[in-house]
Structure formats: C-alpha cells, structure tokens
Design brief:
There is one protein chain. This protein has 389 residues and is an alpha/beta fold. The mean pLDDT is 98. It has a 7-stranded mixed beta sheet with strand order 4-12-11-10-7-5-6, sandwiched between helices. Strands 1-2-3-15 form a 4-stranded mixed beta sheet. The two termini are 27 Å apart. α3 packs antiparallel against α10. Helix content is 39%, strand content 19%. β1 and β2 form a beta hairpin. It contains 13 helices and 17 strands. It binds pyridoxal-5'-phosphate. The site of pyridoxal-5'-phosphate has 15 residues, from α5.
Length: 389
C-alpha cells in the first residue's frame, strides 16, 4: 500500500520533515496519494503549481516546446526565454532578465550583481549587504548567508562575509548598519513567507527605499514566494509602490517546472559582461514556455479573484475557534493556531486537506485558480480541525 513512502525512507537523505504520504497525481486543486485517497491542495507544491496539477493550457504550452527542442544552452538565443524576458520587462518596467533554475540561484545572481556594482561604483570595501532578521533567501551558501536565521546558519559556519541583519521595522537599526558598513545593497521580502507569512509595514518599506536612495544603496526585493500573482498583485512590491533596483523570483513563475529569474532595473542592466555569470539550464526553453503561459494568464481579473479568495479565507478564519491570528495577502495566508501546527497539518491530511507550516504558523498557498467550491470545503475542514484538535 505504501511502497513509495518506504522506498523514500530507505533511499533518500532525510533533510526534510516529510508528511507521511506520497503524491502520485492530480487535476487542478485535487491531488491523489499512492493509496488513491484524494486531497484538496492548499499548498501548490509550496507556491509552485500556480494553476494546480496538470493544468491543460500550461501542459499544452510545455508539451509543444518539448516536442520542438528541450534545451538549447546559453550559447544560442531561444524564443521562449526571449519572449518571457520581454513580457517580464513589460509588466514590471525592469530592463533586463537573467534566468536560472531556482529561488536560491535568482538571489545568488542578485548578490553577485550587487557586489560587483558596489565595488565598481563605490569602492573595493562596498560589498556589504543588509537583510532582515527572520528572512529566508535560499539554501546555497550565498543565499543562506543572506538569510536572517541563526538556526539555519549554525552548521555551516563560516558563512560568506559581509552580511548583516536588521530587525524588521527598526529603521534606526538599519541606519546604524548603513553607517557602520560600506553597503552595496539592502535585500528583503515584503512578506516573510518561511517566517510564518509575516508582512513588513508599508511605512517601513517606504522608509527603507528612501534610505537606500539617499545612501546610493541598491534595493533588492525577493519575490520568490510572494511573486507571480500570489499576493493578488503581480509582484508584492507593487502593493507598496516600491521601485526596486533588482527583483528576484522563482517558485510560481514556472507553474511547476524549475525556473528562477533576476530582474535588473536601468541602473543595474549593464553590470554583467560576458563571462561574469552563467547557468547551464538557465533559460531552458521548456521551462520558459511554461512560465510564459503562466505570466500571460496573470491578468487583472485573475489577480482580482486572488484578492477575493484571500479575503474570504482570512475572514472565515479570523476569530474562529482555536485560531489566534491570521496574516498575509491574497492567496498567501498565515494562521496562528492554539494547538501545535504540525498536529493540525497532520489532522488536515486525515481529513483530506493539504496545508503547509512555516515556523509556528499554518501556511496556505493554494493554486491561484482553486475553484470556490473546493476552497470553501477546505476552509470548513480547517475550521473544524482548528476548533477540535
Ligand atoms: C523558497 C524561497 C527561496 C528559495 O527558493 P529555492 O527555489 O528553494 O532555491 C528564496 N527566497 C524566498 C522568499 C523563498 O520563499
């Protein structure tokens, strides 16, 4: 009955705290495990499957490219990558794109670009980068160094030098860091996803941007989790009227295939010369064809429905029995429960609903097109589980 689970246990490195099921397939927001049990999906594979499982329109775009050319290398131009970059630039006002394969790599690219910019424009000691405590920027040594979480750093010291962490909402602390270190960039998530869906305030974000401008420091926004429609805007910085110098994204951009993108503003667009950075799989035409399909569909009506569905979830859970607090924007929701979240997530699995946890909160990242009926059913189950657990 549980063949996959057992094989997984015996053969894979145990660096994940897995839930005890193996998923084998699905349609839209319904997924099936290896025993045939069905679940309503409030995870999207951690914000990746933007339009759910096996979305037919996305599948067709991906399948078409797969039948033409599966990979071309970066020695040659390819149509899907060029079109995707053009659309990203048009929709954000940014000027150039570098493609990679994950969020961590999108951030590595931004870190390298920021260092090169700081050192070239301001001087050889201007390589310092300030990030926010509680942030998550990835698992590679560079992006881990940027991540503001001591527990994740502990086993891997020494990390990359030059990273400093400022407490969220503490603008004076940020000023002090900028004074103490020759700084190339400030990097942040507008809503800290892995930190339990914890938003930064509009006032703070605006102050950070003003300070960055004043000090000639690059502002990098990590939209790996918050991007691509997740919060009800195309990118979350758009809610706060920010104009970042660089934007990084990944997760939901590919709709299920691995892709990372680093967006460069006019100020940054000439920082890399041939040979300065690269990625074998970056800009893979199949991944880009899928992402192009996703990005084209993230239009006004879709984003409005994301905001409506998010509002529905937050209203239904706020003040419900067993629930302390609800955070987030659009279909990125954090839920502070009275009972331990792991216990709630496991009970939800029993009841046929998949949800995520982040720190001490439940985290909900359903497919952006989850049908109302399934969303309502999942929320009812969540209410019941939180009330009785
Ligand atoms: C998931 C995530 C990353 C890392 O992305 P990977 O694709 O796992 O490398 C970076 N930043 C944020 C905000 C994320 O949520």
């Amino acid at each position: 009955m549980h063949k996959i689970l057992e094989m997984d246990q015996n053969n894979l490195i145990h660096s994940y705290n897995r839930f005890p099921i193996a998923l084998t397939g699905g349609r839209g927001s319904i997924l099936y495990d290896e025993t045939g049990k069905a679940y309503i999906d409030l995870t999207s594979g951690i914000g990746v499957n933007t339009f759910g499982a096996a979305d037919p329109v996305w599948l067709q775009a991906v399948g078409h490219q797969l039948g033409m050319l599966q990979h071309s290398s970066n020695l040659y131009a390819n149509g899907p990558a060029a079109q995707l970059a053009k659309l990203l630039n048009e929709k954000t006002g940014m000027k150039k794109v570098f493609f990679s394969n994950s969020g961590a790599e999108a951030n590595e690219c931004a870190i390298k670009a920021a260092r090169k910019y700081g050192v070239e424009k301001k001087g050889s000691d201007y390589f310092h980068i300030i990030t926010v405590a509680g942030s998550f920027h990835g698992r590679t040594l560079g992006s881990l160094s940027a991540t503001g979480q001591e527990t994740l750093h502990a086993p891997y010291k020494p990390l990359l030098p030059g990273f400093h962490y400022t407490a969220p909402e503490d603008i004076n602390g940020l000023k002090a860091l900028l004074k103490a270190y020759p700084t190339a960039a400030i990097m942040l998530e507008c809503i800290q996803g892995e930190n339990g869906v914890t938003p930064l305030s509009r006032t703070y974000l605006q102050q950070v941007q003003a300070l960055a401008r004043q000090e000639g420091v690059i502002l990098i926004i990590d939209e790996v989790q918050t991007g691509n429609g997740r919060t009800g805007a195309l990118y979350s910085y758009m809610h706060f009227d920010l104009q970042p110098d660089m934007v990084t994204t990944a997760k939901g951009l590919g709709g299920g295939l691995p892709i990372g993108a680093t967006l460069f503003s006019e100020r940054m667009e000439t920082i890399f010369a041939p040979g300065d950075h690269g990625s074998t799989f970056g800009g893979n035409p199949v991944c880009c064809a899928g992402a192009l399909n996703i990005l084209r569909r993230l239009d006004g009506p879709l984003l409005r429905s994301v905001r409506e569905k998010g509002m529905y979830i937050r209203t239904a859970l706020k003040g419900a029995a067993g629930i302390e607090q609800v955070t987030g924007m659009g279909l990125m929701v954090g839920v502070q429960t009275q009972k331990p979240v792991r216990q709630i997530a496991l009970k939800c699995i029993e009841q046929g609903v998949l949800c995520l946890t982040a720190k001490e909160r439940l985290r909900l990242l359903p497919p952006l097109n989850i049908p109302w009926e399934q969303l309502e059913r999942a929320v009812q189950i969540l209410q019941k589980v939180c009330a009785e657990s």
